[in-house]
Amino acid sequence: MNASGRLLARLTVLGVLGAFGMTAGLPVHADDASPESSQKSAATELAALHEAPWDRRGDFILSASASLEALAELPDDAPAARSWAEGGSRTGWFGEAWTDVDGDGCDTRNEILARDLTDADFSRADGVQSREEGRGRGAGVCPDATVWAGVLQDPYTGRRITFTRGQETSATVQIDHVVPLNYLYAHGAWQWDERTRLLVANDPLNLVAVEGEANQTKGACGPASCPVGSTETSSWRPTGPGGWWPANTSYRCTYARRFVSVAAAYRLGLPQADKAALSTTLSSCLTGGDGTASLPERAARTAKEVGSVVCGAAPGMPRWQRLAPWFWAAGSSFGADAEGAHPRGDVAVLRPAAEPLA
Predict the structure, then answer these.
(1) pTM (predicted TM-score)
(2) How far apart are CA 307 and CA 301, in angstroms?
(3) Separation CA 100–CA 109 (nearest Å)
(4) Angstrom distance (rounded) from CA 145 to CA 217
């Protein structure tokens, strides 16, 4: 993208977020390296986030102290009265998966893979080819920077995963919405404008490349609740039972900070249970802890994980099916999410994605 194109894309993003009162102040970088002793306010760090280039937003997550401050200042939860299937589920509410919202000629999935994978190979030629060497050799969704292979150090499990692009292999690495789309819808995005929903679905701040199985297990859950059911069956609950945290406890603090960063950036209200869980974790992180759960919470979480219901899976569904590299169908497949609910909510339909992840 040329300079004028980048400027226009950035102004469009800032204009949409500004309409929600989400921009102010001078830019101050707020990445993982920011010392807590600097005492930056949440407002200052959020200003830095909103001034950042679109493809750098993922580097500007709030510090633990700013996250706690921002968490306390979030608006009230605005639960959706009807399940998202009423408006077309993922595609109906948040647009086609991985839309090129910044207009740089590359889809969001490839941009996140390029950011999060090491030894990224941008060409099908022998050996690891740089982005420059792969220019013009990519797939149609990203002609100049398709990621054909690479290595992921998965933040959710701590595992090292080798990625190879292909119909049978791409699902090994998926792109997770830290704040899931169905969760966003359930707690306020149902009342946002179309452009804002498209932005949050493709915002690098809200996206992380992760192990496919971990992404499927998480589903649409927040830290302490999951939207479940459907309007059609009178079982819709925006704040249903459940909750999810990364198994890799060393990532728990970063996960909590990123979750709150997204909520604060888009002024999303959260259920009280999720606010309490995030507050407990962030308070631990702020005092030098790793934010891991108490033993009783771990025991309850383990029981839920081995039970018959995990974040929207149908009652009685075998665990091997819930964790298989397949995708929830929602009328039409949307490829790279684990959050799609069948229009009937309580009925799980597993099938391969109609559109390849590759």
Answers:
(1) 0.78
(2) 10
(3) 9
(4) 29
